[in-house]
Specification:
Layout: H1 2-20, H2 24-48, H3 53-66, H4 70-74, H5 77-84, H6 95-128
């Protein structure tokens, strides 16, 4: 029963994301509302169980550390990875280096867009059958 509900929600979510992706500003606005309402609910739930600010801080940090989001959220994956591979700071890179990286990113984005389009076409074919 739960698997059927999860599948239904997944299909519904896919359809909504597909439609909203055509309207990025509306998508961002609706997403922002969802995020604010989610955190408002978390905030009020913490208030309802009378969590003090100190306990909230410690408990929140503990949860983020356990699920692996603490460092990534506050420092960022790009900064960590660049430090591990010994990359220079963006300000220390040459202009040509930055332009080359931007071109590579654009090419990757174009490839990703083509793959997404092909997957959508294949999904439509599967749904027709």
């Amino acid at each position: 029963m739960l698997k059927k509900i999860a599948t239904l929600i997944d299909k519904l979510g896919y359809g909504i994301r597909k439609k909203l992706s055509q309207y990025p500003i509306l998508y961002a606005f609706i997403g922002g509302i969802g995020i604010v309402l989610f955190w408002r609910g978390v905030w009020h739930a913490a208030d309802d169980i009378d969590l003090s600010s100190g306990i909230s801080l410690v408990l929140g940090a503990f949860i983020l550390i356990l699920v692996g989001l603490f460092v990534a959220e506050f420092i960022g994956n790009k900064l960590i990875i660049s430090g591990l591979v010994g990359e220079e700071k963006l300000t220390e890179r040459e202009k040509g280096e930055i332009e080359t990286e931007e071109t590579q990113l654009r090419n990757l984005q174009n490839t990703l867009n083509r793959v997404e389009k092909k997957i959508s076409e294949l999904e439509e074919e599967v749904e027709k059958k």
